[in-house]
Amino acid sequence: MSETLIRRAGFDDAEALAAIGAETFCETFGHLYPPADLERYLAQAYSLERTLQDLNDPAKASWIVEADGQVVGFALVGPCGLPHANVTPDCGELKRLYFRKAWQGGGLGTRLFAEATAWLQSRGPRTVWIGVWSENHGAQRFYARQGYTKVGEYGFEVGDTVDLEFILRRDGASFFSDL
Ligand SMILES: CC(C)(COP(=O)(O)OP(=O)(O)OC[C@H]1O[C@@H](n2cnc3c(N)ncnc32)[C@H](O)[C@@H]1OP(=O)(O)O)[C@@H](O)C(=O)NCCC(=O)NCCS
């Protein structure tokens, strides 16, 4: 069994975070887009500058997962930026949750998701939102198991390509109903 470590990311992790973000996005979705669209999106979404801004924002939190001495996954949460009429300023969002292929399906996603959700609820109770690609059935099953349901749709832009994205939500009170 290899050693895995889930930990909050800090400024020293910015380069590693930007790199794992771009790598796992390409691994998961890279085949869907013309190279020019993908390149434009990566330069904007996973730049070092953008990653440092996220790390510097006290309303956001990032995690890194390490295994066998390498970064294998990460997560980013913060205020909800999804386009839905019921989103309010105190809503939270799981913005990113990605693992390298070789590290999927082994329970790490569930553990990281629990940590990220707990951080959001430490400022709650707050409703949590997630955007997920309409064809990403594996992730949709994963989120459904965590109590998230589909409440809307929107167009997610990668360069000039616009994907159909589902909007998922879990109400804040439900996180505390078992206590
Ligand atoms: C979605 C993801 C974060 C889940 O983490 P994980 O460590 O693989 O999930 P766990 O092992 O904790 O849980 C397994 C469950 O996740 C779901 N799942 C999603 N993608 C999966 C994959 N590639 N392999 C296995 N299970 C996957 C399934 O529902 C599975 O449950 P099942 O065994 O009943 O089918 C991870 O698979 C991943 O990084 N996928 C690619 C990137 C991605 O799609 N991110 C979400 C963007 S919104």
Indicate the CATH class: Alpha Beta
Order of helices and strands: EHHHEEEHEHEE
Largest sheet, if any?
7 strands, mixed
- The number of domains: 1
Descriptive account of the structure:
- The protein has 179 residues and is α+β, with helices and mostly antiparallel strands.
- The chain has one domain: Gcn5-related N-acetyltransferase (GNAT) (Aminopeptidase), CATH 3.40.630.
- The chain is 33% helix and 31% strand.
- It has helices at 14-29, 35-45, 48-56, 108-121, 137-145, and strands spanning 4-8, 61-67, 70-79, 92-99, 128-133, 149-158, 161-170.
- A seven-stranded mixed β-sheet has the order 1-2-3-4-5-7-6, sandwiched between helices.
- Helix 1 crosses helix 3 (48-56).
- It is globular, with a radius of gyration of 16 Å.
- The chain binds coenzyme A.
Give the helices and strands, then pairings:
Layout: E1 4-8, H1 14-29, H2 35-45, H3 48-56, E2 61-67, E3 70-79, E4 92-99, H4 108-121, E5 128-133, H5 137-145, E6 149-158, E7 161-170
Parallel strand pairs: 4-5
Antiparallel strand pairs: 1-2, 2-3, 3-4, 5-7, 6-7
Attribute tags:
179 residues, alpha+beta, Aminopeptidase, seven-stranded mixed sheet, 5 helices, globular, binds coenzyme A
